[in-house]
User: Which sequence fits this backbone?
């Protein structure tokens, strides 16, 4: 359940950024990437379509994702996403251990990693 919730919140955040952050929108220029996040069992799953006009997201499996991340299970996925906020190597470690399988174009994943700096809300400076 927590993995499903994290994916939903991620979808909201990506759509918000696509509407409100000019630097994030620049990252979407000339992109047409469908990234799918799922468990190896296939559920929960959510896909994200990144294109110059913004980000679209739906639950479930996409018919033809550009890149797909299949996590060992929902619990492992949730734990990895928590770690990835502080350590992007968490994904690489999971892939090396065989707990995360990348299917499709790994360049799509590498591009997505460049978006991580936008995803976490910035802390407001104290006056």
Assistant:
């Amino acid at each position: 359940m927590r993995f499903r919730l994290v994916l939903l919140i991620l979808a909201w955040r990506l759509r918000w950024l696509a509407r409100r952050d000019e630097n994030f929108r620049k990252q979407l220029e000339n992109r047409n990437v469908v990234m799918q996040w799922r468990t190896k069992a296939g559920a929960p799953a959510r896909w994200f379509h990144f294109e110059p006009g913004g980000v679209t997201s739906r639950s479930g499996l996409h018919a033809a994702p550009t890149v797909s991340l299949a996590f060992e299970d929902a619990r492992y996925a949730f734990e990895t996403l928590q770690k990835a906020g502080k350590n992007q190597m968490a994904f690489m470690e999971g892939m090396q251990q065989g707990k995360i399988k990348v299917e499709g174009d790994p360049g799509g994943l590498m591009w997505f990693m460049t978006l991580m700096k936008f995803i976490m809300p910035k802390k407001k400076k104290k006056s």
Observations:
- The beta strands are 33-39, 45-51, 54-59, 67-71, 100-104.
- The radius of gyration is 14 Å.
- The first helix runs from residue 2 to 20.
